[in-house]
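wait is this the right file?? whatever heres the structure
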């Protein structure tokens, strides 16, 4: 059996959110903070903290997310990925 070699790489994902009309600005902020709090608690999985707001300048070739005005907010997150060969 050959020895395994470590192959680090990254993967970028886009998370977009659209809220129902009755969700208040305060509730949207609470939900965004909760989402970011999960990433903050698991920074060992990330290349860096999510970057975001409205996904207006997101590279579309990542996930085919459209630059529509329907999104209330979005984040681009780059994860560390490792696997053994």
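ok assuming it is, sequence goes like this
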């Amino acid at each position: 059996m050959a020895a395994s070699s470590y192959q680090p790489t990254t993967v970028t994902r886009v998370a977009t959110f659209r809220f129902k009309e009755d969700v208040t600005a305060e509730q949207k902020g609470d939900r965004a903070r909760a989402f970011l709090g999960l990433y903050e608690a698991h920074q060992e999985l990330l290349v860096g903290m999510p970057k975001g707001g409205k996904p207006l300048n997101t590279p579309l070739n990542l996930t085919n997310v459209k630059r529509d005005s329907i999104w209330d907010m979005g984040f681009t997150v780059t994860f560390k990925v490792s696997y053994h060969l």
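The two ends are 11 Å apart (CA to CA). so i think its the right one actually
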